[in-house]
Amino acid sequence: MAVHNGTVYLAGQVPDDATLDIRGQTREVLAMVDRLLAEAGTDKRHLLMAQIFLPDLADFDGMNEVWDAWVPAGHAPPRATVQAALARPGWKIEIVVTAALPQPRA
């Protein structure tokens, strides 16, 4: 993770448990995103962009179901989902996000 000029950049987050199906791996990765954003002082309501990498586009619907339940209504960021080979064969998903730090209240 890097924080610069009020913006939080997360590296690609991948699952710890490669035995889970796409829904389980997506939940696990989004929980990692939540933890890292909290550590930086922000949350998913402040997402600016997301990139999702799937080795198998047949997993798109399962991933999207979990993603849609996770993103707060009215706060869905611009998102790209692409097919890509990932570094480990058991990984079904990798997610990269960028988020803003909340502005201090006056």
From TrEMBL:
SUPFAM superfamilies with a match to the protein in the record: YjgF-like (SSF55298)
Stored Pfam families: Ribonuc_L-PSP
InterPro entries: RidA_CS, RutC-like_sf, YjgF/YER057c/UK114, YoaB-like
PANTHER family the record matches: PTHR47328, RUTC FAMILY PROTEIN YOAB (PTHR47328:SF1)
Family to which the UniProt record says this protein belongs: Belongs to the RutC family.
High-level lineage: Bacteria, Pseudomonadati, Pseudomonadota, Betaproteobacteria, Burkholderiales
Name listed for the protein in its UniProt record: Aminoacrylate peracid reductase
